[in-house]
Design a protein that fits this description.
The protein has about 210 residues and is α/β, with parallel strands linked by helices. It is about 50% helix and about 10% strand. It has a five-stranded parallel beta sheet with strand order 2-1-3-4-5, sandwiched between helices. Strand 1, helix 1 and strand 2 form a beta-alpha-beta unit.
């Protein structure tokens, strides 16, 4: 089976590629955008796609589901760091050919996912199962961003990349990426598009200027 990894985070993409190659899966391709995924699947519709949709230009869950409906023979694995429980519930109930694997899963679980994927079986990691089976939802937290997080959210909403924000703030990529993860976790969002909508609703950026 052909494998496509759509992930702009070098270390996790390279790590997953190494595991795949060690397991004898040599045909691994890299995609950096939705357009590249579509082009590859147009030629290889039975491929498997490991995708961190929060790091490429898939805007939200609806767009992800549309892709899964368009390429019904494709086996999808959502390969991310943080996803909300509501997002996971909708994803699992809406599509039978999308699995979930968090990037902090241990090697054994990653290998289990790869094995299941090669057999065209959906894999749901243990952390996802625990989130979905939780019967007592946690009370909603008041969103309280630090001043630094607020400024970084504004930059994200204006379309700046993590590297560009780091250079502007004279910070390391790792520091800004950590702030980014904390912002997404606090807001309960999964990608830049959702974070931008929050910034617009909260009045952190001017909607009139944003849409010019």
């Amino acid at each position: 089976m052909d494998i496509i990894i759509a992930d702009r985070q070098d270390i996790t993409r390279i790590g997953l590629t190494c595991v795949l190659e060690r397991m004898g899966q040599g045909s691994v391709k890299k995609a950096a955008s939705k357009h590249e995924i579509v082009d590859m699947l147009s030629e290889q519709p039975q491929a498997a796609v490991f995708v961190d949709y929060s790091l490429i230009d898939i805007q939200d869950i609806d767009e992800l589901l549309i892709l899964s409906l368009r390429f019904t023979q494709t086996h999808w694995v959502l390969w991310c760091e943080e996803l909300t429980t509501d997002f996971l519930r909708r994803l699992i109930s809406s599509s039978s050919n999308i699995g979930v694997l968090f990037k902090d899963c241990d090697l054994y679980e990653i290998e289990q996912c790869i094995t299941a994927t090669l057999l065209r079986q959906r894999f749901i990691c243990q952390r996802t199962a625990e989130l979905l089976l939780a019967t007592d939802p946690q009370p909603a937290e008041t969103v309280l961003l630090t001043p630094t997080e607020t400024e970084i959210l504004k930059d994200i909403a204006w379309g700046m990349t993590t590297r560009e924000i780091a250079e502007r703030r004279f910070s390391s990529f790792h520091t800004v990426n950590t702030h980014r993860k904390n912002i997404f976790r606090k807001l309960g969002v999964n990608n830049v598009h959702e974070a931008t909508r929050y910034a617009l609703r909260a009045g952190l950026i001017d909607a009139a200027e944003y849409y010019i």
